[in-house]
Amino acid sequence: MNKKTYTPSKGKFGTVLDKKNWYIKDFGTATYISVEKNRREFGAHLTSINIFKKFIFPEIRNVLYKYIWVDLFAGEGNLILPIIEAIPWNERADFFKEHIFLFDIQKDMVEKSIENANNYGIPINVAKENIQVRDTLQDYPKFLKNLKYPIYHITNPPYLYLGYIAKNSERNLKYFSGLNEGYQDLYQIALINDLRNGLEKIVYIIPTNFLFGFSVSNKIRKDFLPFYDINKAIIFERKMFEFTGTNVCICFFEKKPQFSKEPVVFKALKINNKLTEKEYVLKPQNFYRAGGEFDDYVSYFRSSKPLKIRFYLTLEEIEKNKGQKLVKLLDVNSFSNGYFRFNIYKVNKKLYNKIKNNSLFVRTLDTGGWAGRAGIYNVREIFGVDGIVVTKEKYRTHPIQIFITPDLSMDDLLLLKNYFNLMLEYFRDITDSEFLTTFKYSSSYYTRKYLGLSQTKKLLETLPVHCISLKIKRMLKILIEQKNIEAIKEILLNLNKKVENQIRLF
Question: CA 443 → CA 337, 433, 440, 447, distances in Å?
Answer without folding.
Answer: 21, 17, 10, 9
